[in-house]
Design goal:
Helix content is about 40%, strand content about 20%. The radius of gyration is 45 Å and the shape is elongated.
Length: about 675
């Protein structure tokens, strides 16, 4: 009796065989809230406080226990103004003969144990749900993300309804972001996008108090303002504010749980709210980055399109200017006239170089500059660069030294044209900024790693140390006064650095003011076998020995028509001219043409469409394809690719030299 009486965590009740209470320990008094005097000698079902351990709820009046004489169960029970979970064990007590002499009831409050288990399970469930939300988040809209978060809050708190409201920037109005799906099935109330918080009822208390608020008996709350039309009654409610920088951004709420909300529910809602806040902030930041990236891409695309249009509009008259200058050089000129013509040519070539630089920079910025990887002879490239630059260098009274490694292979793979561009840019700068002394180009090759190091040195003005970081920036020169003294746009080094980086190298500079500069870079130049088609290129025969051709010129510009006619005037080639692509499509089936020169940008029908329609007609009629050469002021590589995809055999970029046009026509025709 002493052991039973002093048991501190188990309520023990004993009855006789007729269920009359004979023993009631102190823990039973504490648990059930009644004294021994109130129950000793009374039947078990005579006092309402004994209802949680009354076995007659499970069986008949005569045999409430199973044959084993043992009954165990757990039950939630409202006691002392709270709900507890009882673990109950009822045992029949036999005598020596096996006859029942009474019953012992053992009841224990396991509320905290079970809540800890539920809390752990809810935590695991919450983590799993949030991980799943994190997985789905990149493909969700903001509303979809919020709806998923509300569903998680509803599930973890065993609620029936859930919502998320956004607090507007004025901190005075609120608007609904989303309800959970179950709520929408029973609610058709209209929610204003800017509902005044001052008019909101208890569901906005968490905003006012800036903490989680629970209402377990909503109908009795004085702050309940009633329901809008179409809204269903809320019996229990809990909401938590989502905060940023001391301000409430959202209100996450749930309602109508079957049992009162407890601390575990509060913890789960707050933790979900914290995670949702992080998700939303991250989503909004990522969305802002996406929008900024899209805006930047759109701006780059718009700039690229603008530059392409401007390039086209400038190249078109420049084609005529340089072309006619090319024709004039074949004329008999006085010395003064020839000098004047050279001035025109230099100005035109400089303008063309500037256009090409701006287009290259645009390609680099929007990621459309693609390097080729073809076999070429580095010694031939370097020899061509040396011959191109030597006259400019020696005209200024400078010495030009070129040193090539004996290990330099015969054939390598890479982008020959872009490497030439880099070397010409760097040598051009050296010529510009060197007034006396020398310029040196040194090329070293390491066969072990197929690495080639290029070093270009001069004895020019040099660059101050504080300006070394600026010189590779676009439209930037080391000193603003330089542009006034030497001219230039500051694009050459920016383009060269980007090209070197795309080749896998890094353009470096060493310089001291007044002592000259050295630019260097190292790139991979893998050795390759000589291509199978390494047949020496032959130039076209003299114009008078060319085979006769009948050419269809598709060109809307009268000046360009005149230029092409002038270019081909001394050849045995005849030209028929049409103004646009539609006229070309109409003429081809009726005419006898050997080749088509197709402008790209024309009214009525462009050159791409016309070429595709001509190729389709040839296929339908089983005709041999006519050679079609695109003549375009569009210089972007993507546009050249579009010409080839449309069916053109080659793409010539304006301005077009006479020799290049004739050589290309002859080359295409000689392959037939």
């Amino acid at each position: 009796d002493n052991i039973l009486r002093h048991s501190t965590n188990v309520a023990i009740v004993a009855t006789d065989p007729d269920w009359c209470i004979r023993y009631f320990n102190p823990m039973a008094e504490k648990l059930f809230g009644i004294s021994q005097e109130e129950v000793i000698g009374k039947w078990l079902d005579q006092h309402p406080a004994m209802e949680p351990i009354n076995p007659f709820r499970f069986g008949s009046k005569t045999s409430p226990l199973p044959e084993s004489g043992l009954l165990e169960y757990e039950r939630e029970y409202p006691l002392h103004h709270r709900t507890i979970i009882l673990s109950v064990r009822i045992t029949r007590i036999p005598d020596r003969a096996g006859n029942g002499i009474g019953y012992v009831f053992m009841a224990r409050d396991i509320t905290e144990v079970r809540r800890a288990e539920i809390y752990r399970e809810k935590n695991e469930q919450r983590l799993a749900m949030l991980l799943e939300m994190n997985r789905k988040a990149p493909g969700l809209s903001e509303k979809e993300l919020c709806t998923l978060a509300v569903d998680i809050a509803v599930s973890l708190t065993d609620s029936r309804i859930g919502y998320l409201h956004r607090v507007n920037a004025d901190q005075e109005t609120i608007r609904l972001v989303t309800w959970n799906a179950a709520t929408l099935e029973h609610c058709n109330a209209v929610h204003a996008s800017h509902y005044p918080i001052s008019r909101a009822g208890i569901w906005a208390d968490s905003f006012r108090l800036k903490k989680t608020v629970v209402h377990n008996n909503c109908p009795s709350e004085p702050g309940l303002h009633g329901y809008p039309e179409g809204h269903f009654p809320v019996l229990r409610h809990m909401s938590t504010p989502l905060m940023e920088n001391g301000k409430v951004c959202f209100i996450l709420g749930v309602g109508n749980k079957g049992l009162p909300y407890d601390q575990n529910d509060i913890t789960q809602l707050e933790r979900v709210g914290d995670e949702v806040q992080r998700f939303l902030m991250r989503w909004q930041a990522e969305e802002a980055l996406r929008e900024a990236r899209q805006a930047a891409e759109a701006a780059n695309l718009a700039k690229s399109e603008f530059l392409a249009i401007m390039s086209h509009e400038i190249r078109t008259p420049l084609n005529v200017l340089l072309g006619m200058s090319d024709i004039l050089e074949e004329s008999v000129l006085t010395s003064e006239q020839r000098q004047q013509l050279e001035v025109v040519n230099r100005a035109g070539e400089h303008l063309l170089s500037l256009i090409n630089d701006i287009l290259d920079l645009s390609r680099i910025e929007i990621g459309r500059l693609v390097l080729e990887n073809v076999a070429y002879q580095p010694r031939s490239l370097l020899s061509a660069v040396e011959n191109m630059m030597r006259s400019r260098i020696e005209t200024k009274g400078l010495q030009f030294q070129v040193t090539l490694s004996p290990d330099l292979p015969m054939w390598v793979s890479g982008d020959e044209a872009r490497l030439r561009q880099i070397l010409v840019n760097l040598l051009g700068n050296a010529v510009k900024f060197t007034q006396q002394g020398h310029i040196a180009l040194n090329v070293e090759y390491a066969p072990q790693g197929n690495l080639c190091r290029f070093s270009l040195s001069d004895t020019g003005e040099g660059i101050a140390e504080e300006h070394l970081d600026k010189i590779f920036d676009k439209f930037t020169q080391a000193d603003a006064s330089i542009s006034r003294r030497h001219g230039g746009t500051g694009l050459g080094l920016a383009i060269s650095r980007n090209l070197v980086e795309r080749m896998g190298g890094q353009l470096k500079v060493e310089s001291r003011l007044g002592e000259g500069s050295t630019f260097s870079f190292t790139i991979a130049m893998p050795v390759v076998e000589a291509p199978d088609s390494t047949v020496a290129r032959t130039a076209p025969p003299p114009l008078t020995e060319l085979s006769p051709l009948h050419i269809l010129l598709v060109e809307d510009s009268p000046d360009n028509q005149n230029l092409i006619r002038t270019y081909l005037k001394k050849t045995p080639w005849t030209i028929e001219t049409v103004q646009n692509g539609q006229e070309a499509v109409d003429c081809v089936p009726r005419g006898q043409y050997d080749l088509i020169l197709m402008d790209i940008q024309m009214p009525v029908m462009d050159g791409y469409t016309a070429t595709r329609m001509i190729r389709a007609w040839e296929q339908r009629e089983s005709r041999k394809p006519l050679p079609i050469l695109a003549l375009s002021a569009h210089a972007l590589q993507s546009e050249q690719q579009m010409s080839l995809q449309a069916g053109c055999d080659a793409h010539l970029v304006k301005p077009i030299k006479k020799s290049h046009l004739i050589s290309t026509i002859w080359g295409v025709m000689s392959k037939l």
